Amino acid sequence: MEPHDEASRTSSAGAPPSRPGVDGRATSPEVAPVRPEPESRAVRATVGLLAVAAVALIGLAVLAGPGMLGGGTGPAGTGLPAAGAIGPAGEPGAPTAPGRAPGTSAPGASAPSASSAAGPASSAPPRQPYSTSSPAPSPTPTPPPPPDVAVVDHGASALEPSGIRVVGAGGANDWATLVAGADGALWAAGSGGLLRLDPATGDRRVWTIVDDAAFGAVGAVAAAADRDGGVWIAGSAWPALRRFDGERFAEVLDAPGNVTAIAQMTDGTLWVGTTAGLYRRVGETWNGIAFASEQTTVSTLLPDASGALWVGWLQYPTPPGSGWLTRWDGAGWARFDGADATPLGSPVQALREAPDGSIWAGTEGGLARWDGSRWATVKQPLRSVASIAWGPDGTSWIAAGDGYNGAVSVAHRASGGWVTDGPAQGLPDESGWMIASVVPTADGIYVGTGAGIHRLAGDRWTDLDPAPALAVGSPGWASALVAVSRDEGWAANDRGIWHAVGGTWTRTADPAGRSLGEDSPGDLLLDTAGRLWVATRGGVLMSERGAWTVIDEEPATALALGPDGRVWAAGEGDAMNAVRVRSIDRVAGAWKSVELPVTTLITWPRSLAIEADGTIWVGTPGSWGIRPGLLRYTKASGWERVVVRGVTEEEAIYDIAVAPDGALWAAGSDVGPQPTSADEPWVPPPWWIVRLTDGPGPAIVGEGGWGPWSIEVLSDGTPVVPVGGRGLAAWDGTHWTHRHDGLSFDRVSVAPDGAAWVTANGGVLVLP
Asked: What is the 3-state secondary structure (H, E, C) of 308-365?
């Protein structure tokens, strides 16, 4: 974050700019009602998880171009005058908070213009959305609209307890999506569930997956208050919208693509941004809007007071992180990007209409303002502005996170400049991998973050800790998991090794005197003597009756138990594309490692298994230039690459498991070709499991969803895998059955008593 001087001030003269009308003529400024912005937390969370799961939940996919409302073209766009700096003039001001010094605001300049894009057809002749002296560009061809997407209305439904037990709430303090409801209540959505908070009374209620399985899909959400009360919520796991009134799901609607942003117009029209583009709900169907250029992911939506819709976009896969802004005025689209919107500078993360009618955009680079004729940079102290809001007194507020998990900062405009708060004033120094959203109310200023909801009280921010119903003090996100019984389990992450007994978690923050940090555990293992083994990038650790021992200091990412009870570890070697596998045994009272020959056929091993005859298997899904695949080692043949399905050598191996009957199973997926342009759709490859006991057998191809990231084989020989959006999938020998279909699980560990522990949305659950 750039340093700033909270004691300096900048001022300039000028009158508030005119506000553009939908017909291109300037109108006098009018005050728009303060509405909660539908923050696009889903997109930002998804981007932050690129290295973790496969969108990586696997990267934001560019899907096929959506359809167009009514077909045809409605070109609009112009060249615009050069933009100037925006200082205090024209911005809603407010008195300096008592006892607090203002921050900085300095002028700057840049020169944007608007460019054209094709949009929904209109019976009116093409016209320019803003007055200008420059000619409009020629219309561009519009792609044909695909079929409309049907809406399945499941009707009203009361909450149904799921029977699932939350033993580690990854979202205990994750409330980054915060919006104000029509009745003044605050709604906060996070990976732990949904919260309703009444600022006037302090009353609060939390709904989790325990109350209804639908709340298990709230992780990485978009949310927007409904004009008739309640809240619209969408989870990244399910491509669905749910309107929740506090007791029931009044509407449950299937939507196209994973929902990333929601906005409701004053007439009730619902606009939805997804990873498949932009859609509008019309009657009982979703109409997709086709653009003449790239189809991509919507990052944020804003309906303004004139009835126009502003849309922020993210473009993937090329170039990474690029984006633009479009505006629909009822007759055509204006597009702002590149030289047309230099002050925007980077993808738009937040949009908000000011009381004077100007449009403010928060971007990774800062803040920009549209006065109806030009974009201009707003000089203020924060970068990566993720949220913008105006209080009842007209004070402007912005919130930002310093990187994906950096400190949270909130700034507001005072009479002489900006006042900035951060960790020194009580805000979290880690955002919890979520970007903050600020909501001013008549009862105070609130900010939702991945580390809790904070309220401004005087000069300090206080953590409201609004989640008493969740399992606080638990591991949350877990990189490794081992189930011991229905009431006991182990989990690990970069904050420590966690042990749960009867719902109570204890943590070993620094096992064997090691601070995990970047050595985040990659695997956990309980051996036949009940000892806990931990694989980290800093070596192999072991705990015996609570005493930790450093076994070796070679990197380890996977562990396995051999048929003779010895522990095996696999990790990266010193050389590029090298894998080191070793067995660990106690010799003369000391632990010794015996290493196999190093192989360079793959690297970054993520799974390891030892067959009864001593054959060793190593697999990796590959990533970022790392070649995926499966290796086998025998004393007779050494290391050799095994092609499982025979379709291609580019096979991602997620996990390998030895069944109680000795059978060996592998879970993986094909690695399909990657898109080479934003116009090319990305199609998820099929996933599968294969029984490898007698050599690679026929692949059992999965049915939809992302996965599988791990595999467990039950005592009766049934292989079980977690699948994104399809719960736990089991193969009964003839077909797949899905347990808890609709939920997304990452890892599964089945205890000897049959209890299934899973990680989901950053939490740990025990399934009924």
From this structure: CEEEEEEECCCCCCEEEEEEECCCCEEEECHHHHCCCCCCEEEEEECCCCCEEEEECC
